[in-house]
Every structure is written in C-alpha cells, then in structure tokens.
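REVIEWER CHECKLIST
Item 1: Sequence provided? yes
Item 2: Single chain? yes
Item 3: Sequence as submitted:
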Amino acid sequence: MKRVLTATLLAIAVVALIFIGQPWMVTLVSALTAELAAYEYLRLANAGGARIPVWWMLFGTALVFLFTLPSFHPEAELPALSALALMLLGWTGFRAPLDRVLRDAALGLFGLVYVAYPMTLMPMIWMREDGKPLLLFLLVTVWAGDIAALYVGRSFGRHKLSRLSPNKTWEGSLASVAGSVLAGLVVVLAGEALSARGDTVLHILEPVWQSCVLAAILNAAAQLGDLLESAIKRGAGVKDSGTILPGHGGVLDRIDALLLATPVLWCVLLIQDAISLGRF
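Item 4: Structure as written out by the authors:
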C-alpha cells in the first residue's frame, strides 16, 4: 500500500509540475532530486571503499545545473565537468592514499555523469517548444513499463533475465516493453483527441508508429538503467540506495531508469533535429 500511495502522490506532483510549473520550478525540482540521488550514489560508492567528499559531490551537482541555465551556453557543462574532475583529482591526490587517488576521482566524476547530467536534461527538454508532451511521454512510458514488469514478473515470471537483478524475468521484461508502448500510444491518442477540440497541450506531430518505436527504445534504455543501478547496489552490498521514499527505497532507486532513458531521448531529439525527421 505504501508503494502505491507514494507512487500516486509523486506522479500527481510531477504531472502538475510539467503543465502548470514555471521554468525555475522545473529546474529547482530537478536539481534537488539530483542532489538527493547524488548523495545516495556517494554513499554507495563510499560503501565500496571510495572516499569521495560529500561537499564535492553536492557542489559539483549544483554547478552542473548552474551551467544549464539559459544565461549560459549549453556547451559550458563540459568544461565545468573537466574542472570538477581536476578539482577532485587534486583533492584526493593530496589527501588520500596514492593507491586510491585514481579510483576516487573516477568514481566521483562518474557520479556526476551518471546522476547529475541526465537530470539537467529534464528542464532542457521541458523548455523545448514541444517539451511538455515530450516529457510526459518519457515519464509515462518509463512508469508504465516499470509497473507492467513488476506485476507480470511477479505473477508469470519463470525465466531469469540477468544476474544483476535476480528478481527480474524475461516475462516481466517483455511485459514492460508492451506496457511502455501501450502507455505511449495512450498519450498520443489523447493528444489527437484534445487537438480535435482545439487544445494542443498534448499535440504530437509524429506518426503513431514513430511514437511506438520511440516508446520501445525508451523502455529498453529504462530497463538497462534499472539493471545497472542494481549492479551498483549489489557491488556495494545494499538492497536499496536509501529509505526516503516509503515502499520505494531511495531517490536513486526511483529515478534509475530515467538516468539512462533521458539521455537516450535527448540523443534521439538531436538526431531528429539534425536530419529533420520531425518533432513532438
């Protein structure tokens, strides 16, 4: 019951933020979520023997978000990440045992690339002309796939999917793909129905088949993101990344699928814009 209630409240809050929020609200919520997830990643990395300073991870996450604001050039993130990496390398070089310098610096930088950067793409997607329906499409496909995998896997799962997560099955994985495609289709058809009444808030320009393909691609990325976070947790010897969300574990547990699905969507959008395939 806790899991369902938490998921429902989060879904309502996120959908409300997408459609009635302001740009600063979307950026602030994304940044706070990234800070919490980055802290949980830090604890996992340090549980495995690293000694990444908390101040660096939280400062680095905030700095990456700062350089995504409209007043900065989008390419400013790369030199910011480079500067942060050198800062951490210098810190560990003078304070940590020499056999841990490279590992700590690499794990810290990976945390920013793995957690902070994907979350900066959320407000960047939202601020596109087609951002609101696009972000809703991303979240709905990921959520629906996760729900389908959970319930079908529990009821009918027989064949193990991967050693990274023993509870996941091929049956649940296939149900996840189907759930994402169906949910994406619902968003598309709802957009068409609203457009027929003169409301373009969910209007999607692409053919339905392209949206279905995109939903399947995002689902594959989301499932991989979930498995990779499971690998990180198993390597650290923990079950959940945290306990802040009742029934769901930590923030990192809740957004692990988005951490891969969001960059994949961003890459698809860049390719679409580059070769004029159309937009949402």
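Item 5: Key structural point noted by reviewer: The mean pLDDT is 87.
Item 6: Recommendation: ____
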